[in-house]
TrEMBL record:
Biased composition (Basic and acidic residues): 955-969
Protein name (Swiss-Prot/TrEMBL): LLGL scribble cell polarity complex component 2
Pfam families: LLGL, WD40
Composition bias type Basic residues, residue spans: 657-669
Gene Ontology BP term (one): regulation of establishment or maintenance of cell polarity
């Protein structure tokens, strides 16, 4: 009975855990997924973006971010700020209006939803009678005018959302006040536009879809003037002085109408089809902005020739004889223009064009010649090419940081020198204590370096590996290249480019040494590049080497993609990271694991066929090891045997079920147990009062060697430890496979003075086979104090204590099912923590992290951060393997998010909540990066920079509310759900976006599955003993 008991909780330890661990989702980095609406406050200088999932996000100066989530998961159709107030209105596609306020709590601003309202019609009325098409906040800040599909305009008082029937403008009332000829010629249909007179708040312009435009007097309830167009109306714009109205139409034209109280114009002053005379698409929105130079800016969306350029997403700018059609690679959602903020000013004088596209935000400087782009400090388009992997590096040395920034500045010469114009609010977040890098690998063969130190994820530098190889298209070809005389005058803008020259260029693994500046990058076609940082542009050849991982194994025929062809001659490289050696794995399968030891000048790589070690100083191969099992039929024969292997897998699954049932019958007791004395039972119960029952363990069937992909190399690890005997430590390389095998190689690295002449030698010293053959996802060596060994060169730079080489070292092997500690060098089992048997989950990510105390500056502990396939994050102590805390972080159905997770060395992490957004979370009480900011609308009073909108406002505002999941649930302290795998979870399948490593083109042994095609696919159910590649 005692073996089922374990000691209870230690109160002092529980207090210490509260000082060390705390789970928070802090900030979302990147570009909002599926944006649907744009709003801007000229006085607050804040930008608002609504999404199709019901989120509303506000952005100001760098570090000023706000986020709210509607209770309903409906799309946001329109966002508009109330003039003179720290409030905004959102319209959802369910026809509901929501009022949000920026309020100060605890010294920081908060975004809160105050109330909601749905416009109701009379009983029996058609839904279109109250279906809102446009919202106009009146400058009095007490009224909303709502245009509807029925042609009626309703008035709603705010706050309170009380409909005022006496202020409504019905289509019948407008019709009665029109001349007889206008009544006969026009049917109203829906309201397309509502605009308040820029000088007189008692006048409102109403535009109807059939082309009728009226100026309505709110005080006298009468039509002051009207205009009739022969084309369907899309939008209107009022000139700043109120004397001119510009309307745009469905035939690609726009018209200018003179506003006069004395005469009623029958025809427009001017009608223009900018890209005629051939049929054009509709101009959906237009701005007419005056300048001191006399010539206005005309900025409009659409209007392109229908036959030749009807599929383009363009916004055109016309001024002073110059015309440019900015061509975006994704659909334009909306746009606005930032101009003079004072309503009494005589001219607009626009300074910037802000365009919200479906995949990025683009800001264009209208004051600099050529109208260049402005580099955004946030809202980065992370998915400009699909993200395929990520790598986080903490505490970057200042010298390396400055060199990376200098290399990146050479790539940003095409951006405008203008400061970021959306700069409302004040960031109160403390200065980041250290410099952190987040590296993302992309499908197009690029690696992007992001500043992940604070709230804003800022692009520092972009590395491209395309120039090393021959591709299907010449990288010098640019879509934006066009002659000066071409018409329309298109110019490509933005960074979103979802197309890749060659899918084999995709980056799968990244490893950066922050001390030496060496970088290793591995790709989809078995290419491994080693790069070093160079501050100057250089032209040199990249040395090539080939690693045959099959070692002439017979009976194998590669049916996958071909290797990439490297350029043989010298290649010119920009300042930054420049490759100097290329190792090509054969067969050219996806590189699944990568490790770099810059002190020994070695790089290790692994694929589904084996792993190898390369000396990048001497440019020679040290050794290769084939890990294929003879029964690995799918890996040997290629994907043509999929059907056969599927039948075999199903057959094995049914056999395991039958064996499990038979064994359970054998374990079932034959009859009731004997009677127990009452006194003994009472004593037993008394003894259990202070003890805790250990949970019942599941029976885990051992995986057989016949399961597919046993040779898939999941992890590689360098360590200086005791491998042969306890008296002498030596360099070593450890490799873990999908079949539960761990290989250990002893390395002989010559001393520094003879390193360039003598070769590095390797000899296999150990081989460990885990009993259940579960995939090995992590390997770690602990020193005599039970602390993980420091990184290469970390001790030499005085950034870490020297490891304890006196006491016995320990080897920690983390498989999908359990954690196991072995003593070194004997490799005898010492400790074990079962995860799958106890909780039913499997390890997906594991990383060692240091957790500092929030109370004592000099106290901290080393632990393991573990992510499971259920989306739970656990902290496990080292070296005793005791679970500390567990938090629910990612929805178990979000397989893509779980696969993309990456931990930092200080208890933080990132994972993709959409193709374009990273969610940042923290497990530590000490390391917390979150927006803390204040918004004071009064700061705009003496602001001299031109803005767009009305006068100053008074009030304070807030940062973001407590972060919530996309489904509206708050993440804090949510307990884990029922045990099991994602396929056993309730609810419908999630929306799984396409992963960049889709199966197309991979004829490799561990064929990469496209998760978007298998929304309910689970690694565990799909292949016991086989792992889907989780390097997204």
């Amino acid at each position: 009975m005692r073996r089922f008991l374990r000691s209870g909780h230690d109160p002092s330890r529980e207090r210490l855990k509260r000082d060390l661990f705390q789970f928070n989702k802090t900030v979302e980095h990147g570009f909002p997924h599926q944006p649907s609406a744009l709003g801007y406050s000229p006085s607050l200088r804040l930008l608002a973006i609504g999404t199709r999932s019901g989120a509303v996000k506000l952005y100001g100066a760098p570090g000023v971010e706000f986020m709210g989530l509607h209770r309903e998961n409906n799309a946001v159709v329109q966002v508009c700020f109330l003039p003179g107030q720290c409030q905004l209105i959102t319209l959802l596609d369910d026809n509901s209006l929501h009022l949000w306020s920026l309020k100060v709590k605890g010294g920081v601003s908060e975004l809160q939803e105050d109330e909601s309202f749905t416009l109701r019609g009379p009983p029996g009325a058609a839904p279109s009678a109250t279906q809102i098409t446009v919202v106009l906040p009146h400058s009095s800040c007490k009224m909303l005018y709502l245009g509807t599909e029925s042609g009626n305009v309703f008035a709603v008082q705010v706050p309170g959302f009380r409909a005022l029937e006496d202020r409504a403008i019905s289509s019948d009332a407008v019709l009665q006040r029109l001349p007889e000829e206008a009544r006969q010629r026009r049917v109203f249909e829906m309201v397309e536009a509502l605009q308040e007179h820029p000088r007189d708040p008692n006048q409102v312009l109403i535009g109807y879809s059939r082309g009728l435009i009226v100026v309505w007097d709110l005080r006298g309830s009468r039509v002051l003037c009207h205009f009739l167009s022969s084309q369907q109306l899309d939008s209107v714009c009022w000139q700043r002085d109120g004397r001119l109205i510009v309307s745009c139409h469905s035939d690609g034209s726009y018209c200018q109408w003179a506003v006069s109280a004395d005469t009623q114009p029958l025809e427009p002053v001017r009608s223009c089809v900018p890209y005629g005379p051939f049929p054009c698409k509709a101009i959906t929105k237009i701005f007419w902005l005056t300048t001191k130079q006399g010539l206005p800016f005309t900025i409009f969306q659409g209007g392109m020739p229908r036959a030749s350029y009807g599929d383009r997403h363009c916004i055109s700018v016309v001024h002073n004889g110059q015309q440019t059609a900015f061509d975006f690679t994704s659909r334009v959602i909306d746009f606005t223009v930032l101009s003079e903020v004072d309503p009494a000013a005589a001219f607009d004088d626009p300074c910037a064009l802000v365009v919200l596209a479906e995949e990025e935000l683009v800001v264009i400087d209208l004051q600099t010649a050529g109208w260049p782009q402005v580099q955004p400090p946030y809202l980065a388009s992370l998915h400009c090419s699909a993200i395929t992997c990520s790598h986080h590096v903490s505490n970057i040395p200042l010298k390396l940081w400055e060199r990376i920034i200098a290399a990146g500045s050479c790539q940003n010469t095409h951006f405008s020198p203008m400061e970021w114009p959306i700069d409302g609010g004040t960031s109160l977040a403390p200065t980041p204590p250290q410099r952190d890098l987040l590296l993302t690998g992309h499908e197009d063969g690029t690696v992007r370096f992001w500043d992940a130190s604070g709230v804003c994820l800022r692009l520092l530098y972009k590395l491209s590996t395309v120039h090393v190889f021959f591709t299907d298209s010449d990288p010098s070809e640019h879509l934006g290249a066009q002659g000066e005389d071409e018409w329309p005058p298109l110019r490509k803008v933005g960074s979103f480019d979802p197309y890749s020259d060659d899918p084999r260029l995709g980056i799968q693994k990244i490893f950066l040494c922050k001390y030496s500046g060496y970088l290793a990058v591995a790709g989809t076609a078995g290419q491994v590049l080693v790069l070093e940082l160079n501050d100057e542009a250089a032209e040199h050849s990249v040395e090539q080497a080939e690693a045959d991982l099959l070692q002439e194994q017979e009976g194998y025929r590669w049916k996958g993609h071909e290797r990439l062809c490297a350029r043989p001659g010298p290649v010119r490289f920009e300042p930054g990271f420049q490759p100097f050696v290329l190792v090509q794995c054969q067969p050219p399968a996806v590189v699944t694991s990568l490790a770099l030891h810059s002190e020994w000048r070695l790089v290790a790589f692994g694929t589904s066929h084996g792993f190898g070690l390369f000396d990048h100083q001497q440019r020679r191969q040290v050794f290769v090891k084939c890990t294929l099992h003879p029964s690995d039929q799918l890996a040997l024969e290629g994907p043509l045997s999929r059907v056969k292997s599927l039948k075999k897998s199903l057959r094995q699954s049914f056999r395991r079920i039958r064996r499990s049932r038979v064994s359970s019958r054998k374990r079932r007791p034959a009859g009731p147990a004997g009677e127990t004395q009452e006194g003994g039972a009472r004593a037993e119960r008394a003894g259990l009062q202070n003890m805790e029952l250990a949970p019942v363990q599941r029976k885990i069937e051992a995986r057989t060697a016949e399961d597919s992909f046993t040779g898939f190399v999941r992890t590689l690890y360098f360590a200086d430890t005791y491998l042969r005997d306890s008296s002498r430590h030596c360099p070593s390389l450890w490799a873990g496979t999908n079949g539960g095998t761990v290989y250990a190689f002893a390395l002989r690295v010559p001393p520094a003075e003879r390193r360039a002449d003598e070769p590095v030698r390797a000899e296999q010293a150990k081989e460990i086979q885990l009993m259940h053959r579960a995939p090995v996802v992590g390997i770690l060596v602990l020193d005599g104090r039970g602390v993980p060994l420091p990184e290469p060169l970390e001790v030499a730079h005085d950034l870490s204590k020297s490891p304890d080489m006196q006491g016995g070292h320990q080897l920690l092997v983390v498989s999908e099912e359990q954690f196991k500690v072995f003593t070194l060098p004997k490799v005898s089992a010492k400790l074990k923590l079962k995860l799958t048997a106890l909780e039913g989950s499997r390890v997906r990510r594991v990383s060692a992290a240091h957790f500092g105390s929030c109370r004592a500056e000099d106290y901290g502990e080393h632990h393991l951060a573990v992510l499971t396939n259920l989306g739970d994050i656990q902290v496990v102590s080292l070296p005793l393997l005791k679970p500390q805390v567990r938090y629910s972080c990612i929805r178990r159905e979000d397989v893509s998010g779980i696969a993309s997770c990456v931990f930092t060395r200080h208890g933080q992490g990132f994972y993709l909540i959409s193709p374009s957004e990273f969610e940042r979370f923290s497990l530590s009480t000490k390391w917390l990066v979150e927006p803390r900011c204040l918004v004071d609308s009064a700061e705009t009073k003496n602001h001299s920079r031109p803005r767009n909108g009305s006068g100053p406002e008074k009030g304070w505002g807030r940062a973001r509310e407590e972060p919530r999941h996309r489904d509206g649930a708050r993440p804090a302290q949510r307990r884990a759900g029922p045990e099991g795998d994602p396929e056993h979870a309730g609810g419908g399948p999630p929306e799984l976006w396409r992963l960049a490593f889709s199966a197309s083109g991979h004829e490799d042994a561990p064929e990469l599955l496209s998760l978007s095609l298998l929304p309910q696919w689970s690694e565990r159910a799909a292949c016991p003993g086989r792992a889907v590649n989780t390097h997204y």
